[in-house]
Design brief:
Length: about 575
């Protein structure tokens, strides 16, 4: 007992407390500098947000100590014959303080603010407009060629929009009705395939893929074959609490329910993955609570902050990507971008479950992070989470660097790769909570057919939809037209009246490359497996925002492009 009291008195002494505070400040400063200087965007990470105040306090304290030290008369006399010491220390102190207060705030402090600290400047390179309507190119894919189906249930997503709160997130079951989402996805798949029930739909899905891609007639799913589901978790973390957009747990659950209960895929043969991020806790528990043997794959090994599988009490079903070479490119020089997860290379089929979302936005009055590199982050760019060297693609996709008009697009190679995009049996866009940027909060869609209220932001009206297609080019063409339509007459009156949604330049260039890779606008000779890449799907723009008709809607018999069917609450619109 006496020993404990002595330890308590020792720890409560002012000297020890000062030593602890100084040590914490020094460690926080070192950690912050080591992590943030190489990559300033890390300043928004929770650990750096915690370290920054301690580091700042330490810098200010250190500056005061040094200044006071050389202001003392007796020390001044002591160092009077060594003026170089005083001058050097003073200069070093001034440089440290100026650097901290001027260089870092311009790049880092903005990451902590919910309102911008930078002066407003008009956006550059966000003036894209679609070309001529109903001029289809490429070869439409699907049981019904070029068909894209959208089903919307306004009651499925009903989050109140409290984006600053960390206990009322959009991804909670109380804010997103998983039963309505499951019914919505079921309806979408049935209308895409023309089947009367889900089991028949999946029979058609597998048979269509096996016949058209593998040359196997009347062959459905076979026991033991692995189905990978690629989701978008760009803003995920092991302790995610924010409201930034990611794959919706309820939509992923709906897809797993379809695969297990309707398609007959064993749980252990389903891999849900994003190989460039850690999977956030609620996503894991949402699936494991119902399907304990479904596998998840992420960038690294399980983290102690992630929940264990409740059925096993450990991390059974959560694995790290095992990187192997598997991707080839038709142009450019890539290294780590050639690597993909072994688990996906060995899978038989793939479902591309992306988000209805743009990749770039120039203003940070809500979000943080850079403005992005390219226009879309739908099913094409979703595979940035299927390769290791994602950063190697950034410059070539960036429209302000190498991604100029009609440039080579590595997204074509990812989509055509026999080890990756070539395995795709179904393309889906999660449109429950859509986004305007790679890192963003969900966006309201004020225009037809959604007609969401946008002010105040804190309101429960969202796009709340799902889109599906066999055609990876067609579904992104429709997604782009939707996003462009929602950018019109949609202004943020509280911040310089800027558009809430903007589409970056060259937005549809990669879709034109995908539609006609054998005669690509860039002049690139796209090759996969030693053979020229053939058309990956149909591209065109709809006639107008109110009718949303493509060539096959206008002329079902002679149309060569896209057919768009959209339904609201079960009624054909």
């Amino acid at each position: 007992m006496k020993l404990l009291l002595r330890i308590r008195d020792f720890m409560n002494s002012k000297v020890i407390q000062k030593i602890i505070m100084i040590t914490l400040g020094a460690v926080a400063l070192a950690w912050f500098l080591i992590r943030v200087i190489p990559k300033p965007s890390r300043a928004s990470y929770p650990c750096q947000r915690a370290a920054f105040p301690l580091a700042s306090a330490f810098v200010i304290w250190l500056t005061g100590v040094v200044s006071s030290l050389f202001g003392l008369k007796h020390l001044g006399r002591k160092f009077s014959h060594k003026q170089w010491v005083v001058i050097s220390c003073s200069i070093a102190t001034m440089v440290l303080l100026i650097a901290w207060l001027t260089i870092f705030p311009s790049n880092i402090v903005d990451s902590f603010a919910l309102t911008p600290t930078k002066e407003y400047a008009p956006a550059v390179g966000f003036d894209w407009k679609p070309g001529a309507s109903n001029q289809p190119i490429g070869e439409a894919k699907g049981i019904f060629p070029g068909r894209v189906v959208m089903v919307r249930d306004p009651k499925a997503a009903h989050w109140a929009g409290n984006w600053k709160e960390k206990n009322d997130q959009w991804w909670l079951d109380k804010n997103t009705d998983k039963e309505r989402v499951s019914r919505m996805l079921s309806s979408t798949i049935q209308k895409l395939t023309g089947a009367k029930n889900d089991k028949s739909s999946w029979k058609k899905i597998f048979e269509y893929y096996n016949q058209s891609v593998r040359g196997l007639k009347n062959r459905g799913y076979q026991s033991g074959e692995v189905v990978a589901v690629k989701i978008n978790l760009n803003n995920s973390s092991v302790d995610k609490q924010d409201n930034q957009t990611d794959a919706t747990p309820q939509m992923v659950l709906a897809m797993v329910r379809q695969l297990v209960n309707q398609a007959g895929v064993s749980q252990k043969n389903i891999i849900v993955y994003d190989a460039r991020r850690q999977i956030y806790p609620y996503m894991l528990t949402e699936i494991w609570n119902e399907f304990k043997d479904v596998r998840f794959m992420q960038e690294n090994a399980p983290d102690s902050k992630q929940p264990v599988n409740p059925a096993y009490g450990d991390y059974t079903g959560l694995e790290a990507a095992d990187w192997v070479e598997g991707i080839t490119y038709s142009a450019g020089k890539f290294n780590k971008a050639k690597l993909m997860p072994r688990q996906i290379k060995e899978a038989t089929y793939l479902i591309n479950l992306a988000i209805l979302k743009l990749h770039s936005y120039p203003y940070n009055y809500m979000e943080d992070g850079d403005e992005g590199q390219t226009a879309l982050t739908m099913t094409g760019k979703n595979h940035a989470g299927s390769i290791k060297g994602t950063s190697e693609l950034h410059s070539i996709l960036n429209t302000k660097k190498e991604g100029v008009k009609n440039a080579y697009s590595p997204l074509v190679d990812l989509a055509a790769s026999p080890n990756l995009g070539g395995k795709t049996i179904l393309y889906v866009l999660d449109g429950l909570y859509c986004g305007r940027k790679w890192r963003c909060y969900p966006s309201h869609f004020p225009n037809y057919p959604f007609n969401n209220k946008v002010e105040p932001y804190e309101n429960p009206e969202w796009p709340s939809c799902a889109l599906a297609s066999f055609d990876g080019v067609a579904i992104q063409s429709v997604g782009l037209d939707i996003m462009y339509a929602q950018s019109k007459n949609n202004y943020e009156t509280s911040y310089h009246n800027v558009p809430r949604i903007l589409v970056r330049e060259n937005a549809d260039d990669f879709l034109r490359e995908m539609a006609t890779p054998q005669n690509a606008p860039s002049g690139t000779k796209y090759m996969q497996g030693g053979k020229p890449v053939q058309s990956l799907g149909a591209f065109e723009h709809w006639d107008n925002d109110s009718t949303m008709r493509y060539s096959r809607n206008l002329n079902p018999k002679k149309g060569k492009g896209i057919e768009f069917l959209h339904f609201i609450a079960g009624k054909n619109k």
